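Sanity check record (used in CI):
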Amino acid sequence: MNLRCLSGFTLVELAVIAVVATFATPSVVVWHKRDQIDARARLMMSTLTLARSEAIRRGARVTLCRIDAARACLAASKACDGGSTDWSCGWGLFADRGGARVLLRMQPAASAIAIGGTGSELSFTPPSGQVIGGFRSFDFGARDNALKSLGVRGRRCIRLAAGGRARLTQGACGAAT
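Expected output for Type II secretion system protein H:
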């Protein structure tokens, strides 16, 4: 009988691989969800930075608001997935031009990420890009409890100063959700 070297895994090797995969899967899920939160927070951060710079450059009011499926601003009292201060339905950045709003940037909904804000709309005004209404904040986290074990490391916060400058930090910031 001719015995050749057979390629493949033995039953013991497959069992070891299965055990390692079982323990690694939850950490991959947590890593992926945390990455989604980071990405969404950075998108909001870049939109806030653009809003301020466009208000300065255009010399006109630039407004960031929660949007609906038709890319129109939601009324302050109208709820998204998580209430009237939930930004996870998406947002739009509009510049005032001749009495009309022109869409500059739009971000669609992200249903897996909860984004709580301290208002439903904010405006940046010329000449220096200040925010009407003072300090604002946005709180980013997982809608499910996938990151509960991470505590503050599983959340992100953007604080917006009255001068229009935004700062992204790790942890919750206490925005209404």
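The radius of gyration is 22 Å. If this sentence no longer matches the regenerated tokens, the check is flagged for review.
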